[in-house]
Write a structure and sequence with these properties.
It is a single chain. The chain is an alpha+beta fold. Helices cover 32% and strands 11% of the residues. It has 4 helices and 3 strands. The protein has a 3-stranded antiparallel β-sheet. α3 runs antiparallel to α4. The longest helix is centred in the C-terminal third of the chain and has 16 residues. It is globular, with a radius of gyration of 17 Å.
Length: 150
């Protein structure tokens, strides 16, 4: 879960993992510098990755909780959405029915081994990002280890 100014969430380069190969020798210095910045900052940035599964490589300090069952994770999501719903910029998103549909959808995806990620505009200029990531192993990125595994 992360809230903050919307322009911060627009920093897409820090929301993508760096390319597996660095720029080739002889590349423009600014390209090499940008690659180094992204390679250093992506793993530790609290910005939500564009691909939800990449939360698994973020520091443990960014993990808000772990749950043994999808229903437990869905209960946490219910608490978060209920707490923030009065601040949602869209009135249509504030209703209990909308929150219930989001939670039901998330629980279904988690049960089938998928991830879920939601984002909401709050009072200007804030934004809320919530993600639940399956970690047993992750279906889309099975090579990524669970950050809280013993």
């Amino acid at each position: 879960m992360l809230t903050g100014p919307k322009p911060r969430f627009d920093q897409e380069a820090l929301r993508r993992p760096p390319h597996p190969e660095p720029p080739p020798p002889g590349s423009r210095p600014e390209l090499i510098q940008r690659y180094r910045e992204v390679a250093a900052e992506f793993p530790t940035s609290d910005l939500p990755p564009l691909e939800t599964a990449y939360w698994l490589i973020k520091p443990r300090s960014l993990v808000r909780g772990t749950w043994p069952a999808p229903t437990d994770a869905a209960a946490w999501l219910t608490d978060q959405l209920t707490a923030y719903a009065p601040r949602f910029a869209s009135e249509a998103h504030r209703g209990a029915g909308h929150v219930a549909r989001l939670v039901a959808s998330a629980a279904e995806r988690l049960t089938s081994g998928g991830d879920t990620s939601y984002g909401f505009y709050l009072e200007r200029p804030s934004y809320l990002s919530l993600a639940l990531v399956t970690c047993a192993p992750n279906r889309t990125r099975p090579n990524l280890p669970c950050p809280l595994a013993s």
